[in-house]
Amino acid sequence: MNDFSLLDTEIGSGRLLIEASAGTGKTFTITGLVLRLLLERADLTIDQILVTTFTELATAELRGRIRDLLRDALLAFQTGKSEHDLLRRVLEKYPDHRAAAVRLKDALADFDEAPIYTIHGFCQRVLADHPADTKFT
Prior knowledge:
Layout: H1 26-40, E1 51-53, H2 56-79, H3 85-93, H4 97-109, E2 116-118, H5 119-129
Parallel strand pairs: 1-2
Helix pairs in contact: 1-2, 2-3, 2-4
């Protein structure tokens, strides 16, 4: 098993599994990963980043926390500063603040299209959107 670093672990190519117990910062980590994907992958938009969790309550919390972080990051890239430790480090890591601000502004404008679901909700959505592609044997 490799150590995980929110800002340094390679993401975006292949799968990344993060296992953690309750209260260890999973929501913080997921929100940070969504931010990184938007900043590092010009080919991705917010509606192409699937986030799943177990409960409706956790889904609502994730949705709110992701939106808040993207909003705070946009402000940080627009002003060049932040009180948030993670965002100060993000500002250093991504020096093209103008491009980052544009990507984050677009993500926030389209945020209602973000696929943030419970696992059950995601499965229901797939079945509803692609009924002819799903077969039960």
